[in-house]
Write a structure and sequence with these properties.
Elements lengths: L4 H10 L5 H26 L7 E2 L6 H9 L4 H28 L7 H33 L7 E4 L8 E4 L3 H31 L44
Antiparallel strand pairs: 1-3, 2-3
C-alpha cells in the first residue's frame, strides 16, 4: 500500500474544491479501486504469466502465446487506468496551490473559487474522457470473461498449442467488479459535471460610470446617480464547495 500513498494524498486534496457528488467519486476511487487493486488485484494476477501453461516445449512458443492471449497484463492495465484517471485531479491540485502561492492572487474564498472553477470543470471533463476510453479499451482487449483455454497458432509454435490460464473464474469475477465500478465512477463524474454547469455563477454585470461633470437630475438629492451601479461588497461564495 505504500506506493499508493502519494496518489491517495493528492486525490484527498481535491475534496476541498469538489461538490458532494465529487466526494462520492473520490470515495469510490479510493476504496473500490485503489484499495481493492492494491490488496486483492495483486494476488489475483501475480502468477498470471508463471501459471500460463502450454502443452509444448518449443522454445519461444509460450511467451508468444501469452502475448497473444493478453496483449497487456490485466494488472498493469488497471494500474495505468488509475494513474490516468488521477492525473487531471492531481494537475488541478498543483495548479490551485500554484495560484494560491502567487503574490496578490489570494483574495476571498469566493473569488478563488470562481477563478479555479473553469479549470476544475476541465479536469472533470478529462476524467470522463479517460474513464470512457478505458472502459471501451477493457471491453475490446479482454471482453468480460477470462477463458480457461486459449488456442494458439502463432509461430514459432510448430502446430496448434493449447494454453491454460490460472484461476479464470476468479479473474472473471474481478473484471466484472472492476467494470461495474468503472460505470458507477463514470456516472458520478457525469453527475458532477452537470452539477458544476448548473451551479456556475452568472456573469457579473458591468459597473456603471458616474458622470463627472453632470449634476444630479431635477428632484434628486445631491450625490444621487441616474442608474444602478455594481455592488462593492464581497463577492458571493464560490460553487466549487458545498
Amino acid at each position: 500500500m505504500g506506493e499508493w500513498g502519494f496518489l491517495s494524498s493528492l486525490l484527498d486534496a481535491v475534496q476541498e474544491h469538489s461538490p458532494m457528488v465529487g466526494r462520492f467519486w473520490l470515495v469510490v476511487m479510493l476504496l473500490f479501486r485503489i484499495l481493492v487493486l492494491a490488496t486483492v488485484g495483486s494476488d489475483v494476477f501475480e502468477d498470471e504469466q508463471e501459471e500460463f501453461v502450454c502443452n509444448t516445449q518449443q522454445p519461444g512458443c509460450k511467451p508468444v502465446c501469452y502475448d497473444a492471449a493478453f496483449p497487456i497484463s490485466h494488472y498493469r492495465f488497471l494500474v495505468f487506468h488509475i494513474v490516468v484517471l488521477s492525473a487531471p485531479a492531481a494537475l488541478f491540485v498543483i495548479f490551485a496551490v500554484h495560484q494560491a502561492a502567487k503574490p496578490g492572487r489570494g483574495g476571498a474564498a469566493g473569488q478563488r473559487a470562481r477563478r479555479l472553477q473553469p479549470f476544475y470543470v476541465g479536469s472533470v471533463v478529462a476524467r470522463i474522457a479517460a474513464e470512457l476510453g478505458f472502459l471501451l479499451g477493457q471491453a475490446l482487449l479482454y471482453g468480460f470473461r477470462v477463458q480457461p483455454l486459449f488456442v494458439c497458432r502463432r509461430r514459432p509454435c510448430p502446430h496448434r498449442v493449447d494454453c491454460f490460464v490460472s484461476r479464470p473464474t476468479e479473474k472473471t469475477v474481478f473484471i466484472h467488479f472492476y467494470f461495474v465500478v468503472g460505470l458507477i465512477s463514470a456516472l458520478l463524474s457525469l453527475a458532477e459535471l452537470a452539477h458544476l454547469l448548473r451551479k456556475s455563477p452568472p456573469p457579473r454585470a458591468g459597473c456603471c460610470h458616474r458622470p463627472q461633470e453632470r449634476g444630479p437630475a431635477p428632484g434628486q438629492p445631491a450625490g444621487a446617480t441616474e442608474g444602478p451601479c455594481c455592488a462593492t461588497g464581497p463577492p458571493p461564495r464560490g460553487d466549487l464547495t458545498v
